[in-house]
Every structure is written in structure tokens, then in C-alpha cells.
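User: My instructor asked us to take a sequence, write out its structure as C-alpha cells, and then describe one feature of it. I'm not sure where to start. Here is the sequence I was given:
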Amino acid sequence: MRTWIISITLICLIAGSSFAGNERTLLGSMEWHNSGMGAMRPAIGALNGETAFLNGARGQWIINHKVGVGIGTYSADFISDYHYDGVTYNMNVEYIGLETEYFFNSGKLYHPSLLLMAGGGIINFNDDDDHFDSDEYDKSYGFLFVYPAATFELNVTSWFRTAIEVGWRQAFGVDDKGLGNADMSGWTTGLNLKFGKF
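Assistant: Let's start with the prediction itself. The C-alpha cells for your sequence are:
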């Protein structure tokens, strides 16, 4: 739920801001264009050897229709049995990071892009009797990650685009309750629903 609230906030704050200009310098004038977008990004991905459903959101400042800079986030709830040291846990994973994306021929009807997201995340553990009904967890551990991805985007309208996203999340610093970096690393594929000025 928190991810969707973040998504709506990003759409409201970022997608509406768009302006262009012509800057004069000693070497001549340089045209530039600034715009922004917010997106919901439902996905599936590998976490702890399972295929998990992820809720995601992202927001970007877009420069000259080519480079996007912003923030992205994903979260996943595991209502599954994870056994460690005689205790059964449920897990919740959330991660957020800075994004940089390069768009190839973004004015064309369909086009690719390359994305790099890097930041930090948290793994929350509750015992089997709790199901994340509150924001209080038994144990929480942090980790770092790098997420390179590629997208294939379709321009639906001037203010709405959709894209397929495929990437690999590489985690670092995971060493808690029997988990390692490989458990929090894995592929992710999903859909981007993007609103704004491009």
C-alpha cells in the first residue's frame, strides 16, 4: 500500500512539471527541454528462491527527451515458511534507489531504453503468527543493491506510455538469518505505466 501512495505522490509532484528553453552561451545557443513523469511498475521477480509479486513506483526528471534521473522503489511480501534456528518466519522486502535511464529515439512509436538503479533495501522478519498487519517487525536487516535493466517502451498518448522492463538485481551485504547475497539477487520483469510529459 505504501508503494502505491508513493507512486501517486510522484505522479502529482513530478509529472506536471515541464518547461523548455533556449540558453545562450559563448559557443552559441543551446536548446534544452525539461519534463517529468511518474509511474507504477507492477512486476514479478526472484527473491529467496521464490517468484514474488512486487509493487513498484518510480519518478523521473527527463532532460532533452533522452536522459531520465529520478527515484525508484519496489516492495514484496512473502507469506511463506522460512525456517531458521527452529523458528518459522514470514519475510517482507523493500528497496529504493536512485535511477538513471537513457532513451533511444524516444519520439518514435516504440523504442528501447537502458536503466541503472542503485540504492539500499531492508529485509523484515515476523514470526509465523504475524502477517505484517502493522509496521512493527521482529527483526529488520539492511542491504545494498545494483539493478541494471532494459525496457521496451510504447508511446500510447502524449501523456501516457507503457513499457516492459527486464532487469537483474544484485544484492550486497546480506548475511542474516541464513540468507546471503544470492538469496536477495535475481531477475525482475514487469510493466511500467508512465504518466507525464516526455
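For the description part of your assignment, you could build on this observation: Residues 99 and 117 are 4 Å apart (CA to CA). Try explaining in your own words what that tells you about the chain.
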